[in-house]
Amino acid sequence: MGDDRLPIFGLDGYDGFCYIPGGISISSRERLAWSCLNEYCEPPHDTNIDQFPMKDDEIEGPSGLSMWGKHLEGSEGGKRETYYKCLAKLSWSTMGYNYDWTLRAYDEAKRSPFPSELAELSSQLAKQCGHQRYRLVAWSVVIAFERKKREEPH
């Protein structure tokens, strides 16, 4: 995924913080971007959209198409349908354990498979930072940011 010989930077007073410029290769970034748009925001993974019921003026859209596929299909014909699940509404998607923010706890019943690609990437990056026996067991969140939104990366 990355180059083991890359420099690693930290911050004084923030043990465990590692910054690895170029730690993920361009081809890996492209593959991850494709996966985020076509897999990680689709069932069985949970998204912010799943938290709300479909509105009367929304439709499910063509089956078998990811949100990205629906987006591309709508942009080709010039007419954009109002899909229940669409990229314009997507803010986040979780993989692995889903955190219940009301109860402040992980919900084992709402666990989705954790992508092996992300588990391998996190393991490789952790090893580069000196954590040889790191094993990801919790969860990951993919967050979609737009300039006009006020969410902070985390």
TrEMBL record:
GO terms for molecular function: broad specificity oxidative DNA demethylase activity; ferrous iron binding; oxidative RNA demethylase activity. Coiled coil: none annotated. Gene3D superfamilies: Alpha-ketoglutarate-dependent dioxygenase AlkB-like (2.60.120.590). InterPro entries: Alkb, AlkB-like_sf. Its cofactor is Fe(2+). GO terms for biological process: oxidative RNA demethylation. GO terms for cellular component: cytoplasm. This is Uncharacterized protein. It comes from Triparma retinervis. The lineage of its organism: Eukaryota, Sar, Stramenopiles, Ochrophyta, Bolidophyceae.
